[in-house]
Structures are given as C-alpha cells and as structure tokens.
Amino acid sequence: MHTALMEPLASRIRPDSLTSFVGQEHLVGAGKPLRVAIARKELFSFILWGPPGCGKTTLARIYATSVGAEFYELSAVDSGKDDIKRVIGARGTLVKQKPRVLFVDEIHRFNKAQQDFLLPFVERGDITLIGATTENPSFEIIAPLLSRCRVFVLNELSEKEMQGIIARTKLKVPKDARAWLIALAQGDARQALTILETAERLYGAITINTLKEAVQSKHLRYDKKGEEHYNTISAFIKSMRASQPDAALYYLARMIDAGEDPKFIARRMVIFASEDVGLAQPTALVVANAVFEAVRSIGYPEARISLAHGAAYLATCKKDRRAYDAIESALEDARALGNLPIPLKLRNAPTKLMKELKYGKGYDMYDTESFLPDKLKKKRYLQ
C-alpha cells in the first residue's frame, strides 16, 4: 500500500489506451499510422522522436499492450549489453508464443557498439524495438538500425492538451496557477506533473507561490531530461551570445559535472556557430565542428577540455545573425507563397522544346538584375 502511495503522479495517471491518451493526433487520430498499427496489431520496430514529456514512453507501453507483447524497458543512460542480453535471452531459447517489445529510452545515448549489438535481434525479429529520443535520429542512430525502423515525430504538447493532462490529476489547481505552470513547462507534461506533485506534497495546496517553491525544492533533483537540463543549456547559449565567456564556462561546468551528454552540448555549439556568430567569423563553424568530432572520439573526462576550448572561442567571437535572419525570412515567403514560377532565364534547358520555350535564354552569370521570382523582385533577405 505504501509503495502505491509513493508511486509518482505521472505514473499513476499514465493512460493505458489511446482512448485516454492526450496529444499527437497526427499519429494516433482516426486513420493515422500508429492508431491503425495498434488496431491491426502490426508488429514493427520504430523510433519516437520528440521533446521531453510529450508521451513517448506512454505510446510505447500502449503499443506493446495492444499487440499482446511482453514489454521490457531500458534506459540507455544506465544500461549496456548485459542488460540487453538479459531482456533478449540466450539465442535460440526465446519464447516464440508471445512477441517481445524492447523499449529503449534515450536510445541516442547508446554508442555504436551497443546499437550494433541490437541490430541482429531486430533483423531476425527476435525483438520489436521501440526507441525514444529527443535528438535527431539521423545523427544518433546507426544507419543499418535506422533503416529497419520507422520514425515517428512527436510534437510538443499544446496549452489545451496540457490543461487536459492537469485536469486528470484531480488536484485543485487555480486558474492562474495552472496558466503559470503550463507556461513554465513548455509542453513537457512530465515536468508539470512533477512540480504539481511536489507542491501538493510539501505545502498541501497548489498556488503560484507553492509551485515556485516546488521548482526550487531540493526534492526536484537534477534531471537530464527535465527543466534543469534545458534551463542550463539556455543559460550557456545566452552567455555565449552576450559574449560572456566566464558565464558560458560556468554553465558548461555545471553540465559537465551533472554528466550531461557532451555531444548534446557540442551539437548546440555547432548550431550557435552559424546562428549567432555566422558571417562575423565564418571559421567558427569549423571550430565548432572540430569540437563535436573531438568530443565524439574521446568522450569524458578529456572531452571537457575541447568543450571549454569551443565555448571560450565562440563566446569571444563577434556576432552576426544576418544569415540566420535571412533564411528565416526566406522560409516565411517560401511557405506563404508556395512555388512561385522560376524566371525562364534561370531554368535548365536540356531539350530542344525547352530551348524553344526560351528556358535559359538571356542568362548571364554576372547579371545584376534580381534572380528572384517576379513577385519577390524587390525582396532583400540578407541585410
């Protein structure tokens, strides 16, 4: 009884079917891929890629239950080959009567050797693999394993969806406190539920003030998938953006000390090099990429030196966001205006008919007239 009472709130209200599942309508709505697969009890391996607290683990459990499979769960953070072996069992002794679903949370944290080890079992159908990741699978999952899995992209939960999840707790949450919590959680249901539970346990009532106290409480330990993870990387990036190397190195040190994935940090530095340094120092991208490669090849503890090198360099670089702003502006027009006709002189003319239609006619590589479509002739993206 005591154990049940101490079960985390997020686990207690976890949906056990799609009927009560909230969000991801593009995957589980009527006629959508995961709902169809579950209804037909189709067994296949897949990767769930999405932000924290959006329902990846819950979807994996619902899928396994619905297809009548045994469900095994591992976290790639603290699991290795031995754990995989225990789940899979000795080759040739697997029970064939009931399928096995192996759910690997944070699968991007498995190294190449661990992923290679999984591959033959997935290939033979000994297990059905479901991986959950917050990182782009194209970069983190080895190609042979990725090619045997479908990838489903999950979205951050909307404000309305978060309200629905909070309502399921049956806790008394005033409107202003609920709005504050939803704004803080930014679509992360697990974080919202953890804060709610802490406020209720410690203070007996939920208000904006008790929620704020709960966020600061030592009862909320550092969680590499939760708020502290994102707060710290945010502080790190903003410190580099403000050209404050001391602050950047401090927040970097906090992440290193907490055991943050060094590739996660380095990847953000690669993005920063183009987004924030950009044209002011084009070689910043070269340095950031070199840091990422160094981190990937050597790992901790020595990787901290390369990370510090990169952070100090990027923080002291001049900043120029023009390239980032330009592509964002161009994307807005591309999405809003669709495929505007490309000027005839810019079109390829490999056939006689195309030449007769004046494709390519009048093209001059040094032309000063805008090559943009007619509707955008006066547009300037790069300021």
How would you concisely characterize the structure shown here?
The protein is an alpha/beta fold and 383 residues long. Helix content is 52%, strand content 7%.
CATH superfamily of the largest domain: P-loop containing nucleotide triphosphate hydrolases
**Total discrete domains:** 4
Poorly predicted runs are: 1-5, 90-95
CA radius of gyration: 25 Å
- Portion in strands: 5-15%
Query: In one word, what is the shape?
Result: globular
Write the layout of secondary structure elements.
Layout: H1 2-6, H2 9-12, H3 25-28, H4 33-40, E1 46-49, H5 56-66, E2 70-75, H6 81-88, E3 100-105, H7 112-124, E4 128-133, H8 137-140, H9 143-146, E5 150-153, H10 159-168, H11 175-185, H12 189-203, H13 208-216, H14 227-241, H15 245-257, H16 262-277, H17 283-298, H18 303-316, H19 322-337, H20 352-356
Parallel strand pairs: 1-4, 1-5, 2-3, 3-4
Helix pairs in contact: 11-12, 12-13, 14-15, 15-18, 16-17, 16-18, 17-18
Keywords:
Helicase, Ruva Protein, domain 3, 4 domains, Rossmann fold, Zinc Finger, Delta Prime, domain 3
Describe it:
- The chain has 383 residues and is an alpha/beta fold.
- The chain folds into four domains: 23-153, Rossmann fold (3-Layer(aba) Sandwich), CATH 3.40.50.300; 159-216, Helicase, Ruva Protein, domain 3, CATH 1.10.8; 227-316, Zinc Finger, Delta Prime, domain 3; 326-376, no CATH class.
- The protein is 52% helix and 7% strand.
- It is built from 20 helices and five strands.
- The protein has helices at 2-6, 9-12, 25-28, 33-40, 56-66, 81-88, 112-124, 137-140, 143-146, 159-168, 175-185, 189-203, 208-216, 227-241, 245-257, 262-277, 283-298, 303-316, 322-337, 352-356; strands at residues 46-49, 70-75, 100-105, 128-133, 150-153.
- Helix 15 runs antiparallel to helix 18 (303-316) and helix 16 runs antiparallel to helix 17 (283-298).
- The radius of gyration is 25 Å and the shape is globular.
